[in-house]
Amino acid sequence: MRRALQSFFFLMVGITLLYTGAEAQWTPMNPVRKVQQETDGVTFTMATGTLKLQVCADSIVHVLYSPTASFPKKTDFVVTKESWPPAKWDMQSGDDAVTLTTSSLKITVTKKDGAIAYAEANGSPLVQEAARSMRAEKVNGEDTYRAESFMNIYGSHEGLYGLGQHQSGVWNYRGESVDISQDNTNIAVPLMVSSKGYGIFWNNMSRSRFNNRFANYLYISSEVADVIDYYFFYGPDFDKIVAGYRELTGQAPLFGKWAYGFWQCKNRYKSQEEILGVAKKYRDLHIPVDNIVQDWFWWNRKGEFVFNKNYPDPKGMIDQLHAENFHLMISIWPFFEPGSSNYDYMNSKGWFVDKFKYAKPPFHTDAMAVYDATSPEARKYYWDLVNKGLFSIGADAWWMDTTEPETEGQEENILLHHKLAAGSGDRYVNAYPLLDTGAVYQGQRSASDKKRVYILSRSAFAGSQRNAVTAWSGDINSDWFSFRRQIPAGLNFAVSGIPYWTTDIGGFVFGSPADPAFRELFVRWFQYATFNPILRVHGTRNPDENELWSYGPEAQNVLVNFDRLRYRMLPYIYSLAWKTTSESYTPMRPLVMDFRTDSRAENIADQFMYGPAFLVNPVTEPAATTRPVYLPQTKWYDFWTGATLDGGRMINANTPLDRIPLYVRAGSILPLGPEQEWSTEKPADPIELRIYPGANGDFTLYEDENDNYNYEKGAYATTPLHWDDAGHTLTIGERKGQFPGMLESRTFRVVFVHENQGVGETPADQADKTVQYSGKQITITR
To answer: Which phi and psi angles does 562 have, rounded to 5°?
Structure first.
């Protein structure tokens, strides 16, 4: 009782403070004056302003509030869906409230104050928007509003997640405050999801905040707005919420198969000779790898896109890498230096945001400039430079660094307080990484359909997934503390709707491969990253080595074994990638995604599912010999031994340095390919199908040409796999589709996993069944 009175007191104090003052336009008792039913929803004329609820689908509602009688048209770089098919819904209007109902939702707007209560179709409450505010302000010389929405959170055990990537080490944001603002290591995505099964996408590009410090109340605010604009999604499964978000903001395209393999990178390769030497040694040692990355300062001056004298034959270098079955990713920045060949021209066109001094060497001391990515002409010119200097000579992928854009030596984003082609920098500040990466994605798509776009970006925003973006966690430190924080950071990013994410294995600054303590950290980080959507090493090392052989024979053995496991998993991983593109799936999955109603799973920040099969449990403490693991309620198999374990309990798992606790869910069908040194070295034949009995299971094997965009035209094949646990039968269904180069016939080695059979990263010595498959259905009985 005391706590309830205390909460009520703080609420009343907050409302009193917020609602007073001549400029404030908080209207807690903002009554409805008129209700107008329309074909797609309901418009409410309020005592102050106008409110509209648009029913987009049975589980998606778009909410708009304007302080005026109309909704001004706004530039929206994020939402791509222009119209929705008619949705089935009903409205009832009584003396006290208006109720909208769909097959999934019941939404009640009370007439006395305009509050919006969201509930499941059966009436179970989800959340309530109790009040909203548009306070007139002048920001960056623009007459605008500060937007605030006040929500009532009902559930005492409700978890709140998403909101991009942040480095606080927090997984569940219940009781926390999160700034939606771009900077190095923090990525702003204003999508919040709840363990109660709903999501809120706050459609605003200015700096914003989700403030739940009083745990039963959520304030969502933005510094610049003409309207309050948000979408309410109902799942209850997180996958359905994410699917709704991607329907709204764009789907994630498929990467080339090579991108799901292993990448070699460091800060930095300094010459053509060094890059080619490292590539050759990987092939000589038969260590699997697909991509090598050229980090910064391959240029003479930033903004030239011309290799310096240390790279005497860039096209020849790329051709040789391609001949050795490597891809080359190149670092590109949105910065231009005076003296570069393009600076004066861009400056004359007004395509720069501002000039600034970069505080750290080895940059030149002259003022650099960031190009204005809100300008369509500047975006096109930027891609033209990349195309002429790099894509035309064979570069495969783009490392788009500092896309926040952040500058060293100042705390705030450089777009703030400046004018852009689109308007006020304060209004569009969070959208820069979306527009910058969009320039390259759209440019490459227009230039060729033979090579799939791949972009690694230091920042992202809502919608970035449609630009073929993988975000990475920025310039993090090389220590256990930073490593631990990457796991909840990545999991929150995953449920923010953008499926691809990675970290610098070992951290960016600093680390010594000669130091046994750092070797242990690097090994543990690599083991974790094997089950990230993208597997890549990077970092500043002393001495300047970061290749897998740099860490000594014992560590190298462990690293290479996990690397080989990653390549054996490629049929599984590539099929998950297709599921991500075709079904809005999320490959790296916090436990709450698959076990949403499990109260323990809500708050677990250091375990996750990788696809439907693997439960991954990174080791994040030095010298650890065990770690606690929560097994959700189902049957599990130890991946390394085949032993079975019952779920719904905590266990203490052993953690020798050569492995992490890794479990596979009963009912899983795990396709593993042959050992190979790059992703397309050989056809995926034979495929070892590991069956984990104990529950029914399904999996769809996906294959295509591995690169190019013919899959968008239907050039791919899928093979459905089904395990009937009661009947002890595996059905390999009829193959659907075809593509050039498809295997007409292949071998499946079926392994029914049990203790010491079908375990670990190496192929099983003996299959339980071996079958030839030519596309027609086969049934196999155990």
So the answer is: -70, -35
CA distance 114 to 131: 7
Q: Mark whether 685 is an active-site residue.
A: no
Cα distance between residue 99 and residue 117, in whole Å: 9
Identify the CA nearest to 675 among candidates 261, 291, 327. 261
169 contact partners, CB below 8 Å, separation of at least 6: 484, 485, 488, 489, 605
Record the pTM.
Answer: 0.95
- Burial readout 83-105 (b: 16 or more C-beta within 10 A, e: otherwise): eeeebebebeeeeeebebbbebb
Tell me if 616 sits within 8 A of 531, measured CB to CB: yes
Two tokens, residue 505: 């294995």
Calpha distance 242→499 (Å, rounded): 10
- What span, in angstroms and rounded, lies between the C-alpha atoms of 101 and 233? 14
Residue 712 has which token pair?
């968008």
Phi/psi-derived region of residue 743, left when phi > 0, alpha when psi is between -120 and 50, beta in every other case: beta
DSSP string, 119-168: EETTS-EEEEEEEEEEEEEEETTEEEEEEEEEEEE--TT--EEEEEE-SS
- What contacts 398, CB < 8 A, 6 or more positions away? 329, 330, 332, 386, 440, 453, 454, 455, 456
The catalytically annotated residue of 295, 337, 401, 688 is: 401
Contact between residue 532 and residue 470 where contact means Cβ atoms under 8 Å apart:
no
Cα(522)–Cα(535) distance, integer angstroms: 13
Counting runs of H as helices and runs of E as strands, what totals does the chain give? 13, 47
What is the signed CA dihedral for 723, 728, 734, 740, rounded to 10 degrees?
Answer: 60
Q: What is the pLDDT of residue 156?
A: 81
Q: Which residues contact 105 (CB under 8 A, 6 or more apart)?
A: 58, 59, 61, 118, 119, 120, 121, 234
Q: Which is it for the CA torsion 496, 498, 499, 504, positive or negative?
A: negative
Query: Is 82 a residue of the active site?
Result: no
Q: How far is CA 388 from the centre of its chain?
A: 30
Q: For residue 590, give the 3-state DSSP assignment.
A: strand
Q: What is the mean pLDDT of each run of 10 residues along the chain (782 residues)?
A: 41 41 51 97 97 98 97 95 96 97 98 98 97 97 97 91 98 98 96 98 98 96 98 98 98 98 97 98 98 96 95 98 98 93 93 70 65 98 98 98 85 91 97 98 98 98 98 97 98 98 97 97 98 98 96 98 98 98 98 96 97 98 98 98 98 98 98 98 97 98 98 98 98 98 98 97 96 98 96
Specify the pairing of strand 469-472 against strand 455-457: parallel
Residue 401 annotated as catalytic: yes
The one catalytic residue among 337, 404, 594, 688: 404
Distance set, CA 742 to CA 257, 258, 577, 684, 702 (Å): 15, 17, 18, 10, 11
**Residue of 396, 475, 520, 594 with catalytic role:** 475
Q: State how far the Cα of 665 lies from the Cα of 100, in Å rounded to an integer.
A: 40
Helices 570-583 and 552-568 cross at an angle (nearest 10°) of 50
User: Which backbone phi and psi does 651 adopt, to 5 degrees?
Assistant: -130, 165
Alpha helices in 465-511 (DSSP H): 480-494
Task: Report the run of H or E that residue 698 belongs to, with start and end.
Answer: strand 697-703
Is the link from the previous residue into 362 a cis peptide, with omega within 30 of 0? yes
